[in-house]
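chain and backbone:
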Amino acid sequence: MQTYRYRGHSMSDPAKYRAKEEVDEVKKTRDPIDHVKMLLDQAKATEDEIKAKKKEIKRRKKAQLQAQLAAVVDANTKLDQAALKATGTPTMSAHREEGKRPTKPVNRLVDNIARQAQSAAPGSGGKKTKKVAKRDKKGNVITHRVLKAQEIDAIRVLRHKALMKECREALGSVRKHKYAWIFNKAVDPIKDHIPDYFDIIKNPMDFGKIKEKLDKKSQQNGAYAGPQEFAEDMRLVFDNCETYNSPDSDAGLTGGTLRQEFERAWLAQNVEAKMAEEDALHAQEDAIIANTSDEPVEEEVLAESQQVSEVNRQLAEVQRQLEELKKQQSMAPPPASPRSPCSSNSSRWPSPSPVTTSPRMSAKPPTPP
């Protein structure tokens, strides 16, 4: 079988070999200008795709604004209906039909939202930027002092975690002692045959409860505010043991041994010096926060995006007022039904006097003979 060589590769099929040779000949004789035109056509197609994507993005933004405007109109309708049911006063649409000016502030707020939504719609003007005060999710203005306080608080949280880690290591070294199991759980007066324990010890403490406090995430859930509270609870365990047991008893000797173990671990972790450094840092950081400017933080945003944010904020306010109206309507007493002329009225018609029965008269009619 005859083999052909094409660019260093062996080919056994003569048809494929001839086809590749023809392709090479076409490439050699092709005009480079045509090749450049082909590349430009491909680039143009890519630009068209980019323009199409931009148009799609604008279309989606316009649809989003239209949806917001529809939500505003829907909220306006619900407010009118709720106000009519709650107070029976004419709605905003009724005022307009009579040619009067609407007086309800809620309706004026809805009108403002609608006008701002229409002005924020695409095509209402050129894109302009403006500087506005930065706000958080609740709508509060963010100042430079607030930002600095948040930054310092984040650093303080990290330092607090490092200090509590030292406390955890000190507790772990004490619990490794062979006699530490005695203090791992709370005292059970019945099981331990010491019924008068809680009569003598008013603030019981054990290693298990200390471990639970170290594992909690926030102070609201009972976590330690700092290493000092941890050290006080550890020493309370040994103080309770010393108070209830005599120094020469087995429990008293065990408590004294573990107290020495804890104090040794506490000194090894050097927590007292680190706490003093932390207090000094707190004072310096408080001074930095106090000296930071209380001016609002400004950010440069598109005018239409700022209007959209204002529309969303006011729409949330309308919804909140709508919920309040619904709540007031549900709490209001039902309207009294009109009385008919024939209905009984104590002020107009005297009540019949009660019929009294004489003691001699029998309550039952006499039976016939």
In short: The chain has a mean pLDDT of 74. The two ends are 145 Å apart (CA to CA). The first strand starts at residue 4 and ends at 6. The first helix runs from residue 14 to 29.
